[in-house]
Amino acid sequence: xxxxxxxxxxxxxxxxxxxxxxxxxxxxxxxxxxxxxxxxxxxxxxxxxxxxxxxxxxxxxxxxxxxxxxxxxxxxxxxxxxxxxxxxxxxxxxxxxxxxxxxxxxxxxxxxxxxxxxxxxxxxxxxxxxxxxxxxxxxxxxxxxxxxxxxxxxxxxxxxxxxxxxxxxxxxxxxxxxxxxxxxxxxxxxxxxxxxxxxxxxxxx
Amino acid sequence: xxxxxxxxxxxxxxxxxxxxxxxxxxxxxxxxxxxxxxxxxxxxxxxxxxxxxxxxxxxxxxxxxxxxxxxxxxxxxxxxxxxxxxxxxxxxxxxxxxxxxxxxxxxxxxxxxxxxxxxxxxxxxxxxxxxxxxxxxxxxxxxxxxxxxxxxxxxxxxxxxxxxxxxxxxxxxxxxxxxxxxxxxxxxxxxxxxxxxxxxxxxxxxxxxxxxxxxxxxxxxxxxxxxxxxxxxxxxxxxxx
Amino acid sequence: xxxxxxxxxxxxxxxxxxxxxxxxxxxxxxxxxxxxxxxxxxxxxxxxxxxxxxxxxxxxxxxxxxxxxxxxxxxxxxxxxxxxxxxxxxxxxxxxxxxxxxxxxxxxxxxxxxxxxxxxxxxxxxxxxxxxxxxxxxxxxxxxxxxxxxxxxxxxxxxxxxxxxxxxxxxxxxxxxxxxxxxxxxxxxxxxxxxxxxxxxxxxxxxxxxxxxxxxxx
Lengths: 205, 241, 218
Fold this sequence. Notes:
Number of helices of chain B: 7
Strand content of chain B: under 5%
Oligomer: heterotrimer
Largest sheet of chain C: none
Number of strands of chain C: 0
Mean pLDDT of chain B: 86
Largest interface: A-C, 30 and 25 residues
Structural class of chain B: mainly alpha
Order of helices and strands of chain B: HHHHHHH
Radius of gyration of chain C: 18 Å
Domain ABC transporter (chain A): 3-205
Number of strands of chain B: 0
Structural class of chain C: mainly alpha
Number of domains of chain C: 1
Mean pLDDT of chain C: 90
Radius of gyration of chain B: 20 Å
Number of helices of chain C: 9
Largest sheet of chain B: none
Shape of chain C: elongated
Helix content of chain C: over 70%
Distance between the termini of chain C: 23 Å
GO molecular function, one term (chain A): transmembrane transporter activity
Keywords (chain A): ATP-binding, Cytochrome c-type biogenesis, Membrane, Nucleotide-binding, Translocase, Transport
InterPro entries (chain A): AAA+_ATPase, ABC_transporter-like_ATP-bd, ABC_transptr_haem_export_CcmA, P-loop_NTPase
Strand content of chain C: under 5%
Protein name (chain A): Heme ABC exporter ATP-binding protein CcmA
């Protein structure tokens, strides 16, 4: 179980945004992505997760082990907290384990409809999804948006103890210090050159 | 050298630009010869009188309406498999030509049908099929215009074109099943002599050749336009970036 | 797959919406028809099979844009795409869920509405069977259309334009089978052909739907 990225170039809207991104993560490693808005953090994470094709380069991690999470986390307002989590657990062939509810402080909310939760509670529910799907390689896009300091710490603890501690890997785009001892990868040097090759319009220029 | 080199937009424009005027002239000459021959130098049909002469517009337009869809299907497949932009843009360029051909076929059919059947429109299988084909063209073109990203639009319209083709064929059989119709059988086929005498047939062949040349000229021209539009957009985004 | 089906059904029931609305629309269209064509019983009897089929088809069309739109908005779609469930299976389940929440209720309601249009007694069985065989195809074709337009704002109208021509064969065989059956002719051919279309649609369209979804997820 390891994540291996070599010379990856990614495009947004048909234009190359990042080129030559390379890094390696061993089990238990986390990597924090930094860079100004628009540098391509989301694009890179989506490409890593296989949601969009990269322009060139390699992404290598065991099949069926990656998961992507962004601020839109597929929570259905009409379903209760446990129903939402049970659904994602079942789709991934697992069952909902009550410890996840404890880890994300959702025990008291378990039968509430997700639509009645506050923004922060919804985020916790969205992040709790990561605990039930049993995926080892997580690609997280600003996971802590609208979380208070206490919840951020709770999430960081879960990530450190229950995910990375169990041999998981996480690539995280975030502006907040999660308190993980993880290397930071600044994406600014990888910004694609003005005339970088591989865009969908290339044939027309 | 592989034929696919011509699928590069620049190469395509460079290669087809010198050819284009020749094709245009050939189309014009062939069409004028075919239509004049057909309208003025063939005898009237003994039953249908001079009405039959609309045949020289109706049949080629109807054939092209179908053939253009087939061409769009082929270019869509090429785009999906080999990702050549010219192929996708040629399909996009062919759509409006195809819908106009369908309209010409429907309109001339109505004009022809009125004196013969006594009505502008009947829900005859052949006419109905063309009306359905018209709807398919409409949906295809609407999808192209609705999607902003060029490559996404090319992908989705290609998928629609493939699925649509299957349903167009299904519709053709369904419509036959639904109503057995007044329309005469296909006018031109390998045993055409049985249906249409040689005097009518030769000018008809010239007209068909003229329509094909006209289509080739138009599709090249419109593909050039699409390529240049795309190039303009590409340069614009590059300038803004 | 079962989990997704269960979730979609639960959502359809709880959100209300699609479930009742399609049926109400079906009822209203059927009520409007006699106002448009006149109350003569013989005329209504003659056009009833076709009207019932067209109205059911339009009612099924209403809720199509919701098939993927909600999952697109809340981000479920990319999460499903990275789950072990192949997108082809997602497409299939979405089609089945749409049928259970729309096509099936319409099928069950159609005989009741047949009374309003003075449908021949001999036609009821055929109406029920053709709708039962045909509406799944409508749902699956609609799912394909919904996948094509999922990323578009105001995609609803375009969706109808794309999907309605694809409905033609199903409509023709369905209404034709009811007409022939009601008049005492053999409806077997039409029924078999309609069944063939439904099977074909379920065999191949999930792949086209998944392809369209992948393009839209990029």
